[in-house]
Specification:
The protein is mainly β. Strand 20 and strand 21 form a beta hairpin. The chain is built from 1 helix and 21 strands. Helices cover 4% and strands 44% of the residues. The protein has a domain at 52-234: Methylamine Dehydrogenase, Chain H (7 Propeller). The chain has one helix spanning 187-198; strands at 11-17, 22-27, 32-36, 45-50, 57-63, 68-73, 77-82, 87-93, 105-110, 116-121, 125-130, 139-145, 148-149, 155-156, 160-166, 171-176, 181-185, 234-239, 247-253, 258-263, 268-272. The protein has a 4-stranded antiparallel β-sheet with strand order 1-2-3-4, with no helix packed on it. A 4-stranded antiparallel β-sheet has the order 5-6-7-8, with no helix packed on it.
Length: 275
């Protein structure tokens, strides 16, 4: 058994980077740590400490092809680091609906192998950004919000707590704090991003202060409004109350084309791809 440095509060997420023998951990103590697992020593060594968050870190995800790690936090920020060079590549954030503060970010995930990341915040929005090495990295491309009709007939929206991505079908599967499951088609968004990346001359290097190209994307993508041919993200399926409580984990199992979910209702379910 190998033991690593103890966080001061609960560990919220863990990622193992096998190629570099590195364990990345995040915690409610605001820290993201890189632990060295390259030696047989019983005590693991600290390789790097990321201290930029000011509130609980909720989730981390990795883009192995470019050694990028993203961490999201209740401070409303998604911080992207290059853990090959220990360099910060960018900070993504979005203000709350009333503009008073940054919306707490509960989950983030790179849409590998594409140069995109999706985040989910407390306002119930899914936010899509392009990231390095896209020529227009750290640009908010579009946000989608799924309003669900409540028993009173009024639209309601609940924060997404978990999500996963199926690159074969270009689908995102999400679970919210009320136990609802959603399936989002992002084919048009992926197609547009890949088109821009393919036209970029990578031999010219990357601008450290890229100019946003949000106009290149048609961002009228709010589910609930009249659907348009130019819409980049669309909801395909919705399953109300898949769980009786918040859905805290969604995993797409590529080999079996299945979706696994678990919840604070103490249940674990397996779904086919069509929900």
């Amino acid at each position: 058994m190998k033991k690593f440095k103890k966080h001061d509060q609960d560990v919220s997420c863990l990622y193992y980077w096998g190629e570099k023998n590195t364990i990345i951990s995040s915690s409610w103590d605001t820290m993201v740590w890189l632990h060295d697992d390259s030696t047989p020593d019983a005590e693991g060594r600290m390789r790097y400490e990321m201290t930029k968050h000011t509130k609980s870190v909720n989730f981390i995800h990795f883009k192995p092809s470019h050694s990028l790690c993203a961490s999201c936090s209740d401070d409303g920020q998604v911080i992207i680091y290059n853990y090959g060079s220990y360099r910060q590549e960018g900070i993504l954030s979005r203000n709350t609906a009333d503009g008073s503060d940054r919306a707490e970010v509960k989950v983030c995930k790179f849409l590998n192998p594409h140069n995109l990341i999706v985040t989910a915040d407390l306002d119930g929005l899914l936010n899509f950004y392009n990231v390095y090495p896209s020529p227009n990295w750290n640009t908010l491309l579009c946000s989608v919000k799924d309003d669900i009709e409540s028993e009173t007939g009024k639209p309601e929206n609940f924060p997404v707590r978990s999500l996963d991505y199926d690159d074969d079908e270009k689908m995102i599967y999400t679970g919210d704090e009320m136990g609802n499951l959603h399936k989002w088609n992002i084919w048009k968004l992926i197609e547009k991003q890949d088109e821009i990346d393919s036209k970029f001359d990578h031999s010219m290097g990357y601008d450290l202060n890229p100019k946003p190209s949000q106009k290149a994307f048609l961002t009228e993508a709010n589910v609930g409004e009249e659907r348009k041919e130019t819409q980049l993200v669309t909801k395909e399926l919705f399953k109300s109350k898949a769980h009786l409580d918040g859905c805290n984990h969604v995993t797409f199992i590529k080999e079996l084309e299945l979706i696994a979910t678990c919840s604070f209702d103490c249940h674990v379910y397996i779904w086919n791809r069509q929900l």
